[in-house]
Design brief:
By secondary structure, the protein is mainly alpha-helical. The chain has one domain: Glycosyltransferase (Alpha/alpha barrel). Helices cover 46% and strands 11% of the residues. It is built from 18 helices and 21 strands. A three-stranded antiparallel β-sheet has the order 3-4-5. A three-stranded antiparallel β-sheet has the order 6-7-8. Helix 13 packs antiparallel against helix 14. The longest helix has 23 residues. It binds 1-deoxymannojirimycin (DMJ). 1-deoxymannojirimycin binds next to loops.
């Protein structure tokens, strides 16, 4: 969409579309005004009828319900297909790496399911060999899921084999950084051959490394992982435009921008998250300075307030703009970006974080669970699936941790009931191919992150477990806990 199209829509709607120069027009933090009848259903969420302890027990039961099916139908494979009772592999069809076990470990620990944790650790000790993977794998996915899952499993259990395997996998990934002329990593590595590929890389994949690599550096006493991750984030920051915006895709060999679209949407999203996290987790002031500069500029250029037809309230969304000119691009909203509400809160901007969460919540008056992609001007789902995404609950969790405002926990509980109603099948929870049908049209997969992310967020919010430090903690983009584990004595 061009800027003039955006402004035409603004006139058409009588609301406000703020691009660069138009930023601030109608900028009224949502959530400060009362919801009108028929608008923003469920804005206050829902109390569990049996109390929070009963809600936590229900989440734990659902974890076991799906985990037991994984054990029955897919043990050792990467992912359960709960509808057919089958399995699928995430990295290489010929070489399962027990992804679900790795993703589930610390959530099982927080739920007190220690026998299940022990079973998982034993499988990892006896069977996990990432060198056997003979397909190119994404550095990003391997890092956040495998390295991160093993590290959080180690922190939860003290089992040194988990730390050793995390280091082993990080050592497979490290050459992607070391052989790059810019320091930003190649996108893929073939673990069995070491071959690197993918010189065109997305910002999220370049810059979602520091939490795992930095934690590994701390645990093994070798700074090289931390430095590789920091150099990668810096390689992007150093190529910012005069507007202090960064694009979407970088050629990591030449350092040239391939796609100069600036946004907080995927595949950029967690680049911003990990700039903040480099500060949060390691108190590295460089990361804080990079985050502050880039995020402030992103918000200034990309925040838009729109009022859909017939709705009394404006909603905050984030547009895409050209990193060099600030010219407005697509307004398409991606559910994956719902995490950004929590990040805005963590960065101290509660009004915007709350407003952005409210925008996503407003869609729940139209959809039972959030679709993958939405046109914010009409509210129409243009991507009708729901890949069991955790981002809305992630933001509820972070905003609740920060403020202890119970509304966020109630919203998370309301969403739990909705997702359970639409995704629960006899052998677990499954992704949805179409959220607009009644009943929801099921796909056939339990995503690995479901075990690591929302099941943990829901359980931690509802249970008050003494295995988690609610005041001082850190969770990675994949929900792995790197600070705040309390092991029982
Ligand atoms: C997770 O793997 C991580 O949260 C990642 O950063 C992007 N989103 C997926 C789940 O939707």
């Amino acid at each position: 969409m061009t800027r003039s199209e955006g402004l035409r829509r603004r006139t058409l709607l009588g609301g406000a579309v703020a691009g660069t120069a138009a930023v601030g027009v109608g900028l009224t933090p949502a959530g400060t005004a009362a919801a009108a009848p028929g608008d923003d259903a469920d804005l206050d969420g829902q109390m569990p009828p049996g109390g929070w302890a009963a809600a936590a027990a229900d989440v734990r039961n659902e974890m076991l319900h799906t985990w037991n099916s994984y054990k029955q139908f897919a043990w050792g494979h990467d992912q359960l297909m709960p509808v057919t009772g089958g399995f699928s592999e995430f990295f290489d069809d010929a070489h399962p790496v027990g992804l679900t076990i790795v993703e589930a470990l610390d959530t099982l620990f927080f739920m007190g399911l220690d026998d299940e944790v022990a079973m998982g650790v034993a499988w990892i000790r006896d069977h996990l060999d990432f060198h056997a993977v003979a397909q190119p794998v994404q550095i990003f996915e391997t890092n956040i899921r495998m390295v991160g899952g093993l590290l959080s499993g180690y922190l939860a259990t003290g089992e040194t084999v988990l730390l050793a395997k995390a280091k082993d996998i990080a050592d497979i990934l490290l050459p992607a950084f070391q052989h790059s002329p810019t320091g930003a990593p190649y996108r893929f590595v073939n673990p069995s051959t070491g071959e690197l590929s993918g010189p065109q890389n997305f910002l999220a994949e370049i810059g979602t490394i520091i939490a795992e690599f930095g934690t590994l550096s701390r645990l093994v006493g070798d700074d090289k992982y931390y430095q590789a991750a920091k150099n990668a984030s810096k390689a992007v920051f150093d190529r910012r435009s005069p507007l202090n915006l960064v694009g979407t895709t970088l050629n990591i060999e030449t350092g040239a921008w391939v796609d100069p679209t600036a946004s907080v949407h995927p595949p950029v999203d967690s680049y911003f998250e990990y700039l903040f996290d480099g500060w949060d987790l390691f108190h590295d002031r460089d990361f804080k300075a990079w985050f502050d500069l880039l995020n402030t500029s992103s918000v200034a250029h990309e925040a838009v307030f729109l009022r859909p037809p017939g709705q009394p309230r404006e909603h905050l969304w984030f547009a895409r703009v050209d990193m060099n000119t600030g010219v407005l691009g697509s307004l398409r909203q991606v559910e994956l970006t719902a995490f950004y509400a929590g990040l805005l809160g963590q960065a101290g901007n509660f009004a915007l974080g709350n407003a952005y969460l409210d925008s996503w919540t407003s869609l729940l008056s139209r959809y039972r669970v959030l679709p993958e992609v939405v046109d914010p001007l009409s509210g129409v789902a243009t991507g009708k699936g729901n890949a069991l995404r955790p981002e809305y609950v992630d933001s509820c969790f972070n905003l609740w941790l920060l403020t202890r405002n119970d509304r966020y926990r109630r919203l998370a509980f309301a969403y739990y009931l909705r997702q359970k109603a639409d995704s629960r099948v006899p052998n677990g929870w499954t992704v949805i191919d179409d959220v607009t049908t009644t009943p929801a049209t099921h796909g056939d997969l339990t995503s690995g992150y479901w075990y690591s992310e929302q099941m943990k967020y829901w359980y931690l919010m509802f249970s008050g477990t003494d295995r988690f430090d609610y005041r001082n903690n850190y969770l990675s983009t994949e929900g792995n806990v790197f600070r705040g584990v309390r092991r029982p004595h």
